[in-house]
Amino acid sequence: KLKVAALRMYACCVEKTDFEEFFNKCQMPDTLNSWFLVAQLHVWMCLVRLKQEGRTGKYMCRYIVHCLWEDVEQRGKVMGINSTILKEDLKRMAENFYAALFGYDEGILCDDRVLASALWRNLLNRNCDDPRHLELLVEYVRKQVQHLDALSGEDLLLTGEVSWRPLVESNARSILKPLGPVYNDEGL
């Protein structure tokens, strides 16, 4: 059951994410590597949430990462990438993957500058001329992590179903800056 839930969560990372919007808004080339970088970001956000669920969550984390590597390899083969080149690419992606996870973890625990730096290094490959792209990405990650934190742990472990807020929203900060408390007439 956990493997099915993990596979479903991985599928949500790659099927419910608008990759084309990321490529366009962040001026990323439409390549296997760009796809991987965006997928990796979404997988990482799921891993952050699942680690809160103890041993069961950590087990799901391992399986989601396994699903990612299986998927990358299959996509490379479908694209007709030479097996030797694909093997080298996978090795490089794996090295970058674990460095990115560390950087994203540090960024989510620190301030927006550290998170922006991690996104610039890992997602944008140090290629970003417009700081508004980084601002958009930092806001996106913060709102997604907060959105995932609000999901029931029991439901996540049973179904693996997650949804994503859009990259661009008219009032994106609404989730980051909650309104003050609302009191009824009795002052409660």
TrEMBL record:
According to its UniProt entry, one GO biological process term is: mitochondrial respiratory chain complex III assembly
- Please state every residue range assigned to the domain named Ubiquinol-cytochrome c chaperone: 25-160
- Record's InterPro entries? Ubiq_cyt_c_chap, Ubiqinol_cyt_c_chaperone_CPB3
A cellular component term from Gene Ontology for this protein is: mitochondrion
Leader sequence segment: none
Please name one Pfam family that this protein belongs to: Ubiq_cyt_C_chap
Q: Return the similarity comment.
A: Belongs to the CBP3 family.
Q: What is this protein called?
A: UQCC1 factor
Q: What organism does the UniProt record list as the source?
A: Loxia curvirostra (Red crossbill)
